[in-house]
Amino acid sequence: MAAANMKQHKLGWIGIGRMGYAMAERLAKAGCDIAVWNRTRSKAEPLRQYGAKVMDSLADLAARDIVFTMVSTGKDVKEVLFGPNGVTSKGKAPKIVVDSTSISLEESAEIREKLAVQGVKLLAAPVSGNAKVIEAGKLTVVASGPRDAFDAVTPYMQAIGQGVTYVGEGELSRIAKICHNVMLGVVIQNLCEITVLAEKAGMQRHAFLDFLNKSVMGSMFTRYKTPALTNLDFHVTFTPELLRKDLDLGLSAGREFGVPMPLASLTRDMVQTLIGNGYKDQDFSALLLLEAKAAGIELKPENVRVSDGLS
Known about the structure:
The chain is an alpha/beta fold. It is 48% helix and 12% strand.
């Protein structure tokens, strides 16, 4: 969509957390007509400098064509849409709701059904990445729902990131996101294990990770976690509690569909142990510290400048 057409639809945005802010900011900078709401209004105010409107009421967003939601849980999605002061509380509703929250299939189906009663189409659109990935323009989106809703929303999702994948009707994108985040948990646990093994054998972490990142096993994920693992910088991109939630969703889906998931189950226990050891306010990659402690070594920051692969 050309820049001149980015105002084709009036957009609404609900949820200005780490992810939500970065996503809404990209839409505002792209020239979209966007109105935003957040429970803590002050977090949304900086978006005004890019042309966004900051709304006092969720119900004011009912006049928007497309409303995006990026909140914490399925309960939060239902509250902002259907609660006493929600978007639809005054009897009006947008044409399309795009939800990027990580929620269960059951919650998504329930929300879809309730919106359909009001003539609203739901596009379930979970994303892959964190705030730094969004800022680098490398966020990816997986979407499911009515094809015409996907076609209408695609240009805006492309403005947020680099790739949009349509996987079909209903809640299929939720399964895709759950599978993605189960892999996230398993991979970070394995990455921490082998990094500690390499260090205990005598290697420096940055040297081992440099080799890994240049190999066929390297990925965008291993690269952008390299600075954290090298310099022990565990400022939060994704909390252990959120990762535990997604692993629980994955294990629940595994039970529903009869798929054994032994690695996911073990990883869930490691993330729970991380939380129990007091790391819940650090990034989930602090699993490295737990692994080092179990291996009987104390890690120190290497204070080496290493690339995160995003810039």
